């Protein structure tokens, strides 16, 4: 029996056992909390630097995911415009076929003219009605193809792409010209003139006078631009997929708990706490040996 055991006012041994028990309980609670939350960092104090880095990564992931949605919207918008322009291109080809038919003297030129007018009106309708979420795609109106579209495609504010497929400086699809019957507005001069001529044909002579070269060049130019922008957006989408995956992996290393390791730590701390509780009980009763001196 040590001399310490004869001091009853302060049981130092029991206090030390109590401190050891408290530490083990804290370790067990910490591991159990990590098991419950699946997070290695539940408070800033768990890992201050890791918390700050992880939250910065989380912010960038959120921004990149938003940018990826923007890229998807841009892709869908371009796909809508592309689909309608291909349809317009097909209708131009139909008109060319009608022009060839009108050169045959045995065909009814008046009936062919009516067919051409009907196709022309459908083309005008396509220009006026092609929209993506109420945004006009084939006319130069407020917020439409003439002013272009800007999408944020990265985490940084300045990481954007400006999409302008309606003008190429030569044969513009869009502009400030209206068709004669005002069905379609804000078109390029060559396009509007071609549509006015198409819907105005009445006989073989007016059909033969139709010139669709500039009109088709404007459509082809816009389709080419859409194809180029689509390729750029596909590349940005691939990059964002990779960047988001890598950032999430880094965030996981910082914040996600290793469940197997924490289970081991929890079990070890619980067993240690049970042993410490038993020793604390014994040490807490040790001063009772002093009573033997009074018998």
Task: Reconstruct the topology from this structure.
Blueprint lengths: L11 H26 L10 H55 L6 H21 L1 E2 L2 E2 L12 E4 L7 E4 L10 E4 L11 H11 L4 H5 L4 H43 L3 H27 L10
Antiparallel strand pairs: 1-2, 3-4
Helix pairs in contact: 1-7, 2-3, 2-6, 3-4
Helix content: 55-70%
CATH hierarchy, class of the largest domain? Mainly Alpha
| CATH superfamily heading of the largest domain | f41 fragment of flagellin, N-terminal domain
Average of pLDDT: 86
Number of helices: 7
Shape: rod-shaped
Largest sheet: 2 strands, antiparallel
Q: Roughly how many Å is the radius of gyration?
A: 39 Å
List segments where confidence is low: pLDDT < 50 over at least 5 consecutive residues: none
Q: Which strands sit side by side, in order, in the main sheet?
A: 1-2
The total beta strand count reads 5
CATH topology of the largest domain: f41 fragment of flagellin, N-terminal domain
SSE-based structural type: mainly alpha
Distance between the termini: 18 Å
């Amino acid at each position: 029996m040590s001399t310490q055991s004869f001091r009853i006012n302060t049981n130092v041994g029991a206090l030390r056992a109590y401190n050891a028990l408290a530490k083990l309980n804290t370790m067990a609670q910490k591991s159990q909390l990590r098991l419950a939350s699946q997070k290695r960092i539940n408070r800033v104090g768990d890992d201050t630097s890791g918390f700050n880095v992880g939250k910065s990564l989380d912010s960038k992931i959120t921004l990149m995911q938003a940018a990826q949605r923007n890229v998807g919207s841009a892709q869908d918008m371009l796909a809508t415009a592309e689909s309608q322009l291909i349809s317009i291109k097909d209708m131009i080809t139909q008109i060319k076929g009608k022009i060839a038919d009108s050169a045959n003297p045995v065909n009814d030129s008046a009936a062919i003219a009516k067919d051409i007018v009907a196709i022309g009106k459908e083309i005008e309708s396509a220009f006026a009605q092609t929209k993506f979420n109420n945004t006009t795609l084939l006319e130069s109106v407020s917020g439409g193809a003439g002013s272009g579209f800007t999408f944020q495609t990265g985490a940084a504010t300045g990481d954007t792409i400006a999409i302008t497929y309606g003008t190429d400086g030569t044969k513009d699809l869009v502009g400030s010209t209206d068709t004669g019957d005002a069905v379609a507005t804000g078109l390029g001069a060559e396009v509007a003139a071609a549509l006015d001529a198409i819907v105005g044909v009445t006989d073989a002579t007016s059909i033969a006078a139709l010139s669709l070269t500039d009109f088709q060049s404007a459509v082809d130019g816009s389709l080419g631009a859409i194809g180029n922008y689509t390729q750029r957006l596909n590349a940005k989408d691939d990059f964002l997929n990779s960047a988001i995956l890598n950032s999430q992996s880094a965030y996981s290393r910082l914040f996600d708990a290793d469940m197997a390791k924490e289970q081991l730590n929890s079990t070890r701390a619980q067993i240690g706490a049970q042993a410490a509780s038993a020793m604390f009980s014994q040490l807490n009763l040790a001063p009772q040996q002093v009573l033997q001196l009074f018998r």
